[in-house]
Amino acid sequence: MMVMQPGLKSAKQPVASCCRLLFVLLLGFLLLLAACGKSERRLQLGDPAPDFTATDQHGNTIRLAELAGGPVVLRFWSVDCKYCRADTPIFNDYYRRYKDQGLMVIYISLNEDQEMVRRFIADLEIEFPVIIDHGGRIAEQYRVRLDPQAVFINPEHKLATAVLGGVGEEEMARLLGGYLQ
């Protein structure tokens, strides 16, 4: 039988303390990892379009939820995107022809350089609203990771489809034809 003298610790006590500390650290790490690793739910076709409020190039406030009556096309883009430069005339044409039927086209710039965006708007004679997405908050709401991307929202403000890359005339006609005359 082993008799312990006062003030002396068993060799097992430091090991037990060390194991408890490791357990607590591991548990904390796993909780932190779980919190950081939470993935947001993916947007699905038919989901309500996430609302946002932003200011366009003319200083007008745009709130998606207030745009009622027709389809909405959100175009996430950047000034150095060759597809954006190439298909902007198609978006311009559709906006001019169908804005009276409720079509709204909104370009959402992923660039924050206002002068570059202003030049892009002027060069391509964009007539519809253009928003600079400061901090990428709108892109985050729509889970946009790459540009260009066009998000088509139906008149009921549900997500109809999303197109990554350039958008041609036939594709615009197919995607918007059911809503426009």
From TrEMBL:
Primary location class: other
Start and end residues of each Thioredoxin domain: 43-181
Gene3D superfamilies: Glutaredoxin
Localization of this protein: Cell envelope
This protein's UniProt keywords: Cytochrome c-type biogenesis, Disulfide bond, Redox-active center
GO molecular function: antioxidant activity; oxidoreductase activity
PROSITE patterns assigned to the protein according to its UniProt record, in alphabetical order: THIOREDOXIN_2
Protein name per its UniProtKB record: Alkyl hydroperoxide reductase/ Thiol specific antioxidant/ Mal allergen
Organism: Desulfurivibrio alkaliphilus (strain DSM 19089 / UNIQEM U267 / AHT2)
